[in-house]
Design a protein that fits this description.
Blueprint lengths: L4 E7 L5 H9 L2 E8 L2 E9 H9 L7 E6 L2 E12 L6 E8 L6 E10 L5 H4 L3 E4 L3 E6 L8 E4 L8 E3 L10 E2 L7 E6 L3 H33 L10
Parallel strand pairs: 1-4, 2-6, 7-10
Antiparallel strand pairs: 1-3, 2-3, 4-5, 5-6, 7-9, 8-13, 9-12, 11-13
Organism: Ferrovibrio xuzhouensis
Keywords: Ribonucleoprotein, Ribosomal protein, RNA-binding, rRNA-binding
InterPro entries: Rbsml_bL25/Gln-tRNA_synth_N (IPR020056), Ribosomal_bL25/Gln-tRNA_synth (IPR011035), Ribosomal_bL25_b-dom (IPR020057), Ribosomal_bL25_C (IPR037121), Ribosomal_bL25_long (IPR001021), Ribosomal_L25_dom (IPR029751), Ribosomal_uL5_bac-type (IPR020930)
Length: about 230
């Protein structure tokens, strides 16, 4: 589990494109806090601070405390709009998280000890079906990630959600089936055939390219004809 990250914000008095544009010119990103059946709050955050948090990763699975106007709101980030040219944030949405509430959130999946998997040592490939899994959990119990060791796993092994040890109160949204998260797959026959076909196709071209050079070398090596003797 991780502690909530604090973000300093400022209240905004008005919405609208003109006001938002003026906010961005000041180096800030306009945003809104909504949810918990309360009135939405218009805010702005420092663009550099927001970009720093985005670059840390797992932005949408981390708990934040947004401080502004002498109060603090516990929130989750739900949306960030990016500029299509600069790829910098231009708007951010936060959702209030009340005490005792349950959130629905995607959590990253990590795979450890890949070097101890006999299947991977034999040339098998870790085929990740779900890089993230959606869970129900309490805000205080949001894990940074879920992980599983690949030690001892052979080619053909399927890793289902039931194989993960989940923290208390963390349950997958999909509960009617034991879905697959990853498999250890053998290299496909198609890949092997493709490599062989490419090698076979390249061979005639290489031989054709080498032929003129070989002919030139042969001509250079051939002794010059002797002039005919005068009678």
């Amino acid at each position: 589990m991780r502690d909530a990250t604090t973000i300093a914000a400022e209240a905004r008095s008005r919405a609208g494109k003109g006001t938002a544009r003026a906010t961005r010119l000041k180096g800030r990103v306009p945003g809104v806090i909504y949810g918990e059946k309360q009135t939405p709050e218009l805010i702005s955050v420092d663009s550099r601070e927001l970009l720093k948090e985005l670059n840390k990763g797992n932005f949408f699975s981390r708990l934040f405390t947004v401080e502004f106007s002498g109060k603090a709101e516990r929130v989750l980030a739900r949306d960030v709009q990016l500029d299509p040219v600069s790829d910098r944030p231009i708007h951010v949405d936060f959702q209030r998280i009340g005490k005792g509430s349950r959130v629905r959130i995607f959590i990253p999946v990590h795979f450890t000890e890949q070097d101890q998997s006999p299947g991977i040592k034999k040339g098998g490939v870790l085929n990740i079906v779900r890089h993230e899994v959606e869970f129900f959990c309490q805000p205080e119990s949001i894990p940074e990630s879920i992980s599983i060791s690949l030690s001892g796993m052979e080619i053909g092994h399927s890793i289902h959600i039931s194989a993960f040890e989940l923290p208390g109160g963390v349950k997958p949204v999909i509960q009617d089936r034991d879905f697959t998260v990853a498999t250890i797959a053998a290299p496909t026959k198609e890949d092997e055939k493709l490599v062989a076909a490419e090698a076979a196709a390249a061979a005639p071209a290489a031989a054709a390219a080498a032929a003129p050079a070989a002919g030139a070398k042969a001509a250079d090596a051939k002794p010059a004809a002797k002039p005919a003797a005068k009678k």
